[in-house]
């Protein structure tokens, strides 16, 4: 199988949309990603997967911290901005949790210190030890077969 066929197969897995944020000392930076996973409750650990050619890789390494922000269905423009698809005309507003930039009004923002880096294939996995979370209400922005969508649920318990 070729890389395009594999990529198409992976696109058939519906995901939420996240923006990974960090501050490398030169300012807040973000990158749209769907390669996120919860690993452990005790200790609280999550992981993200970053392409080894992505600019964000060295920014996270320099910062030693990152946040994962779950976007709402009202934040597609923010996802597109950080994916390099369309510049957000009015810029992106950041909040800060423990000094780590987060996307304002995200459904959830999870901030963490980098616990481990593992190079696997053409990506690096950053396992993060969770420091704090912030939650808001709303509906998630989803991604399936290369297209944005949404999912409606009355409430999340």
Fold and architecture overview:
- The model has no long low-confidence stretch (mean pLDDT 91).
- The protein has a single domain, classed as Pnp Oxidase, Chain A (Roll).
- The chain starts with a helix and ends in a 7-residue tail after the last strand.
- It has 3 helices and 12 strands.
- It is globular.
- The chain has 157 residues and is of the alpha+beta class.
Brief synopsis:
With 157 residues, the chain is an alpha+beta fold. 15% of the residues lie in helices and 47% in strands.
Index terms:
157 residues, alpha+beta, Pnp Oxidase, Chain A, seven-stranded antiparallel sheet, three-stranded antiparallel sheet, 15% helix, globular
- Strand content is over 45%
Q: Which strands sit side by side, in order, in the main sheet?
A: 3-2-6-9-10-5-4
Task: Please estimate the helix content.
Answer: 10-25%
SS summary, helix count:
3
Task: Look at the structure and name the CATH superfamily.
Answer: Electron Transport, Fmn-binding Protein, Chain A
Extended strand count: 12
CATH architecture type: Roll
Q: What class would the helix/strand composition place it in? A: alpha+beta
Mean pLDDT: 91
Shape: globular
